[in-house]
Records
---
Amino acid sequence: MKLIITVYHPWDTKFRIGDHHYVREFLNDGWDVLWISHPVSFAHGAKPENRTRIERAKSGPYRHKDGPIELVPYTMLPWLNRPLLSSQWVLENTHRFCRPPLKTSLEKIGFDKPDLVWITDASMHAIADIADPKAVVVRIADDNIEFRNIPSSLSIVEQKLANRADALFVTSSPLLDRLKPEYRSKIHLLRNGVNFDHFQGTFDRPSEFKDIDGPIVFYVGAIEEWFNSEWVKNLAEKRKDITIFLVGMVGTDLSNLKDLQNVKITGLRPYESLPGYMAHSNAGIIPFKRTQLVESVSPLKLFEFLASGLPVVSTSWSELEHLGSPALLANKSDEFVEMVSKVIDKDWKSDRGDKFRDYARSHSWKARYDTAMEVIGDFLRK
């Protein structure tokens, strides 16, 4: 069985998103997988982090060790959030300017007639037609149009792609409620999950923690405009005995935190290292602003924190309210501080860690994969 999956990120990023975990389940199930990451172009060469991807695009498809084949398309007409290049026409035609042509690349590696095309990166919508699959599914992981740098032209193409698909997966109840009237029986709720076993065991204390004696509060994930640094600042100032570790790529202004000695901003860390950080922390936090984008977010970090036995304190938003998790949900900054203080001072990690793990165990990626395959299987058998 062959799968083509289109994903914005490369396969070998330091962090892991839902599609990484689904592909691992497909591979474990005996599928051969082609991972198509977001196209590169002449416009991407200015950033050093893109140069490796440009070289990979030039060298053609390659297989990762114990992983999928990856194809990095190179296009002469990139769809970017810039004048002219952000238009619907560019988005609908960028694939026509790929060199070599996508059809040629697929035929060369034997993926021109896959069993399944799974699209998360809608900018690669054309794969649904260029390939000749038995089934096409679309996974909407976020309310994409609410991202600051996403051109509005994406919403039109996403709608066309959803109409083209045999099945549509969404990761949260708000997304389901919004799209259900239009897509009815085609749409299915498929929340994010956790690789539970990855967070079990005994782990060495991270070197960055070696000089810390007091409680540690941990955050991992993107640090963008939805990250509420004011809540973190309030926590750091009122609980100087707590060290707050923020792990992730920073894409927003954190200048209000720079003079706080008990706030550590570390940048990205590999997924493989996260269990060690969580095992030696006292709580996990998700301090987001309650925006339209955040309302429909299904946070992987919630399940990963709980799988590690960590108590979680988060901003309250719609999807988390639907989940019924053991996380404490705050609506105000001082309430957030009070809740973090409560779970640390009463040592919820020791007292309730098993309860948190039990919740996370029921949300495994394997269970999510099985649910997806129950839907997809009907189309594959036709």
Note: The CA atoms of residues 75 and 96 lie 8 Å apart.
---
Amino acid sequence: MAATTSHRLPIIVYHSVDEKKTSISTPLAFFKTHINWLAEHGWSTIRLSQAAQIVKQGGNLPPRSCVLTFDDAMQSIRDIADPILRDHGFTATTFVVTGQAGEKPHWFRLPDPYRDEPLLGRADLEKLAENGWEMHPHTHNHPVMSHLPEDVQREEIEKSRSVIRDWFDQPGDVLAYPYGQFNNDTQRAMTACGMAAGVSLRFSASVQSNCLMDCPRIGSAWFKDSPLRIKLATAGLLEWYVSAKARLKGDRSRHFQTPTSETVQGLIEC
């Protein structure tokens, strides 16, 4: 049995770059701060599928590699994120809800400002792919996977991966679990579908070779506009920093996770 290896690989997750002030918004000024800091400090982007393959095979990732991911394929990645990333020679991954591409999204708990804004359709996504973006599935309908029977979960994965392969001629073998939720049935469905990896919302800057079906990511909201937080996140120290601040405030009940509107208050201002 191959030895388990740990790899420093910050996988940063964004949703939309905008000024809507929701739990999944990243203001433009903050986004520019993030990308500029990475570029100025020698970070480079690596394709998610390539990183997963290197980790699985026990190889060495290029120094200061990170993965930039955008869930849901919202319009701002075409209009705002892509030009900024190209200016720095960066690439990114978007996870596509294939059953709603080009349509107004309608899944559970989506903040209201996005319900009247169609997701990117095939033509726009193909242009992003031509610009170097990697496309991967975010399921077909964005359900809470852990609430579904295994056969339905498998259908969600198979449908979404099939669309990715058909539209973009890309493997589409990394799944972003909607809401970061999955269970043992999901893991079996992933294996049956031949998926190479899955990304969750568990917070860490490292990926384990024996845990590729639960690759952690760093929620961009934790950065605020602070270069210090970006440095701590990419170094794998932001969890310690925020947890220590929470303890100093006397609140030991909170646990560290990718922030939502419910969890972010009180910690993000630390």
Note: DSSP finds eight helices and twelve strands in the chain.
---
Amino acid sequence: MFMASGIALCLSAAQAQDFKQKGGDNNLQLLFAPFGSNPISLNEGITYRRFLKDGSMAVRLSLSVSSSKETDVLQQSDDTLSFPTSVFYNGPFPGGANFDLITGMNPETNLVTKESGFSIRPGFEKHLAGTERLSPYFGAEIVFSSSKTKISRDTIVVSDFTATVTDTLSDDVTISAPWKTQSLGTTYGSKTFGVNLIAGMDYYFTKNLSLGAEFGFGFYSTKYTDYDSDYLKVTDTAPVVGPDPNGVSSATVTHSTTVESNPSLKRGKDSGFGPVVTARIKLGWLF
């Protein structure tokens, strides 16, 4: 066994460069989950490495970009149980005409959630001798990451309208003011800075192709960005003009709904340190 091991080590030393990296080589790595629903995941990030000297040193840059959008229907457009087909609006003159607003069927309302994020992690690696196909290493990286979430929720309101009436008019005025949706948004996110000490290994199962894993220990500090939200501002005006030479006063009634922003709410921050583990296998291509 000892003799066979010695012969194997000698052969490995003689052929070490047949499979493993050399100085000047480039390497791309991505995460690979062979038993997952998404075996190759670009959202988890991709790593570029440039090997220096004789292949024992490498500089690296890991980049991850993600984006998602989810839409949930809160209420169908044909659901007329929650909102009537017409509403009543008081007139500006006591005992005078009022307004009947013909609103019709309510529209569809949705809840939309958008999430996005990115991280960038520059670092370096020191590779050890290993074996013919195995290249263990250790190193460090700096982490910069950011995330943002925006939630938009539709609410149903009466559309804007304008109408003019007189104090002599007693019959109700009918106005077309169909229901419309206004979207109220809520936005928040985070920014993170960290430093990781890492160790890992690459196994070249064939020339220029490798599988690997990585783990380490790191520190992070996260600042949560302000919490911004919207609200509806309803404005009703009925300025009265007159009376005219005939003693008749008139009023122009306006109704509008706008989206305004609440004052931003401050959010906190946190920090910590602990193990850093890449839970999936890294698939690497050497070129």
Note: Confidence is low (pLDDT under 50) at residues 1-16.
